[in-house]
């Protein structure tokens, strides 16, 4: 079922808010209290849950509600720490989602690959399973670094890592995987021809 342009714009804006979150927090803390920013974060995450639910994507909607609950519970202990831990929670959630899909017929990377190429051969299926594990490792390491920045780093370092460097690393992994895939595929095809 198609959904309207205003809903798409809302989803896009919520996505942009999510990506720019660390930078918004950095500048927002000079004008607003941590409590105000935490409430804003919870509203954005819950709006994201509603957006998913409207799209009938109940799994991501439930995850967004869970994330909001974790952030709210953390906010009871320390509003500033809860704000700084949001990137950790997002990375752990992504890692958990990718991990759960390893126990299904189609791991996450295979699902994404099939959007472009519905018919994958056995080699590609095995490769996407391995790549899903690589992404799980990335999300785990990213969560560890984000945790360190949340607990020990200055706001400037926290913002730099969570608002720029982590996205740069995602881009490097995403783009860097393409030549690796081509090389490994060529090697596989050569072995098939030689046998």
UniProtKB/TrEMBL annotation:
What transmembrane ranges does the database entry give? 9-29, 35-54, 61-78, 84-104, 134-154, 160-180
Q: Which keywords does this Swiss-Prot/TrEMBL entry list?
A: Membrane, Transmembrane, Transmembrane helix
Do the record's keywords include Endoplasmic reticulum? no
Q: Does the keyword rRNA-binding apply?
A: no
Q: What is this protein called?
A: Intracellular septation protein A
């Amino acid at each position: 079922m198609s959904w309207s342009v205003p809903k798409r714009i809302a989803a896009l804006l919520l996505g942009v808010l999510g990506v720019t979150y660390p930078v918004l927090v950095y500048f927002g803390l000079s004008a607003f209290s941590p409590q105000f920013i935490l409430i804003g974060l919870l509203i954005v995450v819950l709006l994201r849950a509603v957006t998913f639910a409207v799209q009938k994507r109940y799994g991501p909607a439930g995850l967004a509600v869970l994330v909001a609950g974790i952030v709210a519970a953390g906010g009871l202990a320390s509003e500033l720490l809860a704000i700084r831990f949001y990137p950790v929670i997002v990375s752990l959630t992504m890692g958990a989602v990718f991990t759960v899909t390893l126990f299904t017929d189609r791991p996450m990377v295979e699902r994404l690959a099939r959007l472009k190429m519905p018919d994958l051969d056995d080699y590609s299926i095995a490769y996407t399973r391995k790549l899903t594990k690589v992404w799980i490792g990335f999300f785990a390491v990213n969560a560890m670094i984000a945790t360190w920045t949340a607990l020990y780093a200055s706001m400037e370092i926290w913002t730099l890592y969570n608002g720029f460097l982590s996205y740069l690393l995602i881009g490097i992994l995403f783009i860097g995987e393409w030549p690796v895939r081509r090389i490994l595929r060529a090697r596989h095809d050569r072995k098939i021809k030689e046998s």
